[in-house]
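Supplementary Methods S3. Input chains for the assembly prediction are listed below.
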Amino acid sequence: MELLAIFISAVLINNFVLRYFLGICPFLGVSKKIDSAVSMGLAVTFVMTITAVVSWAINHWILIPYGLDYLKIVSFILVIASLVQLVEMFIRKVSPPLYQALGIYLPLVTTNCAILFLALLAALKEYNFLESVVYGFGSGIGFTLAIILIAGIREQLDMADVPEPLKGAGISLIVAGIMALAFFGFSGMIK
Amino acid sequence: MEEKAVVCASQKDFAQVNVEIKGEICSTCSVRSLCAGQQEEKGTITVLNPLSARPGDEVKIKFPEGDYTKELIRIFGILLVGIILGLALGYLVALFLSLPLTPISLLGFLLGLLAGGAILFRYFGRKKKNKLYPVIIDIIRKGGSHG
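Predicted structure tokens for the full assembly:
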């Protein structure tokens, strides 16, 4: 039950994009089409889940036992950067043309502050292993949900008569703001 | 998506081309300074060369954009399913056999990740590897190196 509460909280109530406004760069940059939004969402979910596991292990097996708490931020940044490099190397190995085509895609995941925030928040909340994984996975699903929703709206907006100064990022930010207000309605669902 | 490019080298079925995508597509991107394509080797990509274009030729290339998205969804989807299934299996095994939860769940997680990776290696090994390369679809202008 506790795990379900953490999951629902991460997806709907404490959604990283719509509650904390983290990870806005890929949220706006890769949300023009639903297909690309789904792939970015899955990439972020994967990196978030793995980050939750590795950062939990480092925090509980190295940082806390040896009194190195002050190295949290540095070590988590290192973990995230290394993970994204590993994912990049894996993709280069399994599919060179896909790796060639990715360009900005994976760096967008690396520079996603939501992932660092996830590692820090999971450590701050003193989650155990399973809670950390569920929190990481739920946060990724929350990000995916938000990016797919805005991609769907942006596809519709392409056919709408948007005033010239608001086209592009302007209207997207307004939509994101309205979505955040809507998601605020989930507050209080879980205490 | 189609783009113009200039062939700078060709070998067998492939060619290296210089693409001028950056100016058209990336000019409005707010994060282009982070882009790997903005670095030194920018604009030079490997493409399939079914028309036997030669260095100096101006060509039109087509990117299988939809395929990239599908493959990415497949890669991350399979890896995610692998880790979640592995974790769930590890958790259940530890629960039923009264083993320590954390190490067994972690082991399940890692095995799931490895299984997902192995499936992807098999999948991409079996598939036609050239499918995802951009393809030269037209030679717009012959270059100077033609006899």
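The two ends of chain B are 32 Å apart (CA to CA). Chain B has two domains: 2-64+132-146, 67-125.
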